[in-house]
């Protein structure tokens, strides 16, 4: 198998690459990046005979198509995905090569499903798998795993926490962008849009994360999960950046216009407040609490089985780069083995066999804390 990882020198891309080079069926891994400095790579990738770092720009459509024709799968880890998911997928479809991304921006997902990309991919017999990271990705697969064990699914709650100690590059862009404007949620059987960064609740995560405040964020699952899990009433996704002061400051910046996207003239210079805030967020002042080197997921699936109410809960905690990169690597290997047969644009819950995926995920050291709660439904 020959793989092309776009954004290959970034943290998520390297997470994919480090797993792929270990696999005997993988012959080569091309790491395409706008800034192809070997010093950015970890020694395992830099010293691997299978890995090669090359320059690639997501705005170079012809260059991507030419490069993609030489591989078996393209794995897009170049965020932010509201800017990159669609152009990279278009290039992969034109090259007639299977595509995977770790897209966590709902805008890109919405376009992929509702544009000509889906039909062209189907006609070409290729798969465009979007959202195959951690969130979305692993939690989508867990949702399917639990849904398959229920007669019906009523509610799905997806919560995540990311420490800013793990944030870098495009991840900051996504972290600010996901709170702007109205974001999708699936409530009472309908897709609705709520104000990003609102709806605060507290949720408990595994140590060292503890109790965190969660707010509505703009992720793809409210768009994709109802396509595959019928009659679900609620698909809610909320997230948090920790320490708590980070989300509080982002909310204040949003409320006071510092995350505005309309250009402003400042003493003869045109400045977009969002771009300035993003640049400043890239450098956290010395001495501020950056939180633990850890991030977490919580998946809650509620439904019915044999006339009883059943609630499944899954909790995970770990480092963000391997937690996001490993799912994409596993999916690429499953494609190569013929375990992903759906063609066209598809989300993880629509094409990934949960049992096979979770077996590989656990084999790589992942740990999932699961609970099942069963209660009788009283009938009067």
Search tags:
single chain, 380 residues, alpha/beta, Rossmann fold, Dihydrodipicolinate Reductase, domain 2, 2 domains, seven-stranded parallel sheet, seven-stranded mixed sheet, 18 strands
Description of the molecule:
This protein has 380 residues and is α/β, with parallel strands linked by helices. It has two domains: 2-133 and 320-353, NAD(P)-binding Rossmann-like Domain (Rossmann fold, 3-Layer(aba) Sandwich), CATH 3.40.50.720; 138-318, Dihydrodipicolinate Reductase, domain 2. Helix content is 34%, strand content 29%. The chain has 13 helices and 18 strands. The strands form four sheets. It has a seven-stranded parallel sheet with strand order 3-2-1-4-5-6-17, sandwiched between helices. Helix 1 (11-20) crosses helix 12 (320-336) and helix 4 packs parallel to helix 5 (106-114). The mean pLDDT is 95.
In short, what is this structure?
The chain has 380 residues and is of the alpha/beta class.
CATH fold type of the largest domain: Dihydrodipicolinate Reductase, domain 2
Portion of residues within helices: 25-40%
Average residue pLDDT: 95
CATH architect. name of the largest domain: 2-Layer Sandwich
Distance between the termini: 60 Å
What ranges have pLDDT less than 50 throughout 5 or more consecutive residues? none
CATH top level class name of the largest domain: Alpha Beta
As a whole number of angstroms, the C-alpha radius of gyration is: 20 Å
Write down the overall geometry.
Answer: globular
Organism: Desulfomonile tiedjei (strain ATCC 49306 / DSM 6799 / DCB-1)
Pfam families: Sacchrp_dh_C, Sacchrp_dh_NADP
InterPro entries: NAD(P)-bd_dom_sf (IPR036291), Sacchrp_dh-like_C (IPR032095), Sacchrp_dh_NADP-bd (IPR005097)
Domain Saccharopine dehydrogenase-like C-terminal: 209-365
